[in-house]
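seq:
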Amino acid sequence: MSVPIGIGPMLGTAAALAVAGATAYAYRLGRAARGAVVRGDDAELAAARELLSAIPDGLLLVQDGRVRSVNRRLCELLGFERAELVGEGHPFPFWPPELRHELEAWHQELERDAELDGELTFRRRNGERLHVAVAGRRVPDGGGPPRHVLTVRDMSPSRRREHRLAELCGRDPETGLLDHLEFEGMLGGAVRRAAAYGETLTLVLLELGVDGHAGAGVFGRPGALVAVERLQELCRVDDVLARTGDGELAWILPRTDMHGGVGAVARARTALASLSGVRLTAGICDLATAGDALALCAFADRALVDARRQGVGGTAQYRPAAAA
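struct:
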């Protein structure tokens, strides 16, 4: 008996769910869909299709490294049309390029163990990242290449709550800025994104001086806290400003080269010009010069040391030739 056009992938997903035994609900849907085919009932086929589309989790059927079927919910989660997903192979369109190796490793583990749960990050069609819970199961296919059915659930709301709690725990109590540990994590992520997209990135280390005092105790002075507020107002949406030490701040500037970092410091000084006794000393390095996050921090710190030698309010850029 022939299967109506468009119902085959839906039945494949339903059958896979039924065999995998993901949930009793899915099993009943799979059994209902197969029964509709046997009876050749177009109305029941349409109803089965609607039932599968109404499953609250995204469904993905992968065989031989390619997407064979998706449901409506997955398309809604990811923002892709079905035709943009079905037939695509690794790397799938919803894989963030900076996480490709992690996702490939996850699929390899699923193929090896036949069953795997985990939390992953997918990419929506518009480029936004989506945190999801994924459960994968291998299902039989009559001797053909193994099939894997994956259920995908949006974890973004709970993830945002967790992130907010973690963010509050990672704040410096004096300034309200991210602390040193959180800064290191943010810098690592920013460097990975810049490398994945071929973008520039600059790190500026700042030493804040108030009334001739620098180092320990500076952030206890009212002028320093006002300066921090003004620096925060200068930050773009994806800039990161953190407290990294006594009187020291770190400013991560995505999509900014060394010259742009110098300009950012100049804008910061302009913003603080009306604050009596407040001075900034700055060391600057960009990712193109450093190559990785660890070197970026080390080289920006060397530049800050050079800036201190110029006196309060100095600015220095890290230059490999000068450091040799």
